[in-house]
Amino acid sequence: MTWEERWHPLREEWVIVAAHRQDRPWNGQTVRPQPTEIPPYVADCYLCPSNTRISGKQNDHYSSTFIFDNDHPCVGADAPVDLLQPKGLYRNRPAQGIARVVCYSPLHNLSLAELQVCEIQNLLQVWQEQYVDLASRPGISHVLIFENNGEAVGVSNPHPHCQIYATNFVFKTIETESRVCEQYLHDTGRILFQDILTAERDDGRRIICENDSAIAFIPYFARYAYEVFLAPKQSHSSLAALANSELRDFAETLKCLLVRLDNLWRMPFPYVMALHQAPADGRDHSGFHFHIELHPPLRRPNLLKYLAGPEVGGGNFLSDTAPEEKAAELRTQSEVHYKTKTQLHETKGESRKTA
Ligand SMILES: [Zn+2]
Ligand SMILES: [Zn+2]
Known about the structure:
Low-confidence stretches: 351-355
Radius of gyration: 21 Å
Bound molecules: zinc ion
């Protein structure tokens, strides 16, 4: 039984781990898995190749990745600049920035987990280029690359894609992480994330997969049941600084991780995935260690983790599961995607029939 509070060193907050509560009665809503039959092309999908989007712009007839400026940006050059000044202590400013969409594949029905390692590596290179391009623009302080995946996190279009918000401010989580990491470097002379990696390796129970230069684990202080961190072993402040061999290892580890998540319940595993990169605000961020955080909203098949009193009301997380147990579940999963296995099985069955 794990029942304790754990310190989250990157967010500087306590997480209540109360794993004995996970079998408590539940009469509420569950999430239906998506239907498995999705076609590779959908005529009214705004992301499929050559389709016309609602803005009237036409997608390229692309064959690998495709990038375009978001037609409904939350930050953009067109945001009003002549703002009415609020009264008293309130402040406002123009919602300046650049919002983009990156399609991973021309195929509507492929998820990131199903892409080949070389395709994932190609995508990582696209992310590198986008980061370098956007981070160098005047007025941009941060580049947030993220993917919302699955209906459970509000995405109804399965076409594999992510979004990029290049903003005139630094997102709160990254602002906290970068401040904490610089303070740690100043106080100890060490990189905080390296000490996390050392602690995870010393324990070993929460590591899901690793290779020469990349590692994936559910951290000791995880807030969500299947919250996975994926990081290069060398410290780099952003993805852009990874060498090609590191990118390959990183792509391999990401693939291995996503396949295991999908295999766990034999369903596309919903998640919010965010690249945590140092702010692009011109300051020194040598204490920052680039990593990806995956926040899957499910704690059991079809059962959502609701953010309620402790999380929304109080701001700290209550976790009903022990990271050690969840990591062990994922470690035992196959590295071959269940859909590939089914296809292999069907092909075998058919060849037997014809033979
Ligand atoms: Zn599509
Ligand atoms: Zn982080």
